[in-house]
Design brief:
Elements (H helix, E strand, L loop, with lengths): L8 E3 L5 H14 L11 H9 L8 E5 L4 E9 L9 E8 L8 H15 L4 E7 L3 H9 L3 E12 L2 E11 L3
Parallel strand pairs: 4-5
Antiparallel strand pairs: 1-2, 2-3, 3-4, 5-7, 6-7
């Protein structure tokens, strides 16, 4: 039996929002990969999508045909203009597609697009207890800048968050 062809990576469209949030909402409700605790209502989902309308802040999906296999995005690190060279990354993979290289392919495309758009540094926040995300980011050249200790609380757990960066213009 041949392996299934890799899901193509492409820019997200508004039609992808249900598939994106089908992956994200379970993490909101039952996981610690995000510190959001309530799923976004439709209006906020549209605003979030629109915040990714520029080449500098891309939103990508791995399109498996009948479903979104994963998504990755680049967001503003801070609303302060002096931070505009910094982009925060996010990557989430559908459970049925984990361990198949989808996250790596999404992140490689995200890195390439952010570099082409002139970003200087990519940042990632990875909660303790997420070894797959940590390994993915390390394999792509992200380095730990520091750990913010006991910064979050979810499901009664006090959590540390690792901050990692990847410099694109060194």
């Amino acid at each position: 039996m041949q392996p299934a062809p890799a899901a193509p990576i492409r820019s997200a469209t508004p039609d992808d929002l249900p598939g994106i949030f089908a992956i994200y909402d379970p993490e909101v409700l039952a996981g610690t990969a995000t510190f959001e605790t309530v799923p976004k209502p439709l209006r906020e989902r549209i605003d979030w999508f629109n915040a990714h309308a520029s080449p500098r802040h891309p939103l990508l999906v791995a399109d498996a045909g009948s479903m979104i296999a994963g998504w990755a995005g680049g967001s503003r690190w801070s609303p302060r203009p002096a931070y505009d060279r910094a982009i925060e990354t996010s990557v989430y993979i559908h459970p049925d597609h984990r361990g198949q290289g989808v996250g790596r392919r999404l992140m490689l495309e995200l890195i390439a697009r952010c570099r082409a758009a002139g970003a200087g540094v990519l940042l990632a926040r990875i909660v303790e207890g997420n070894p797959a995300s940590l390994a993915l980011h390390e394999s792509l050249g992200f380095q730990t800048v520091g750990i913010t200790r006991r910064i979050g609380e979810k499901f009664g757990r006090i959590l540390d968050v690792r901050i990692m960066d990847l410099h694109l213009n060194l």
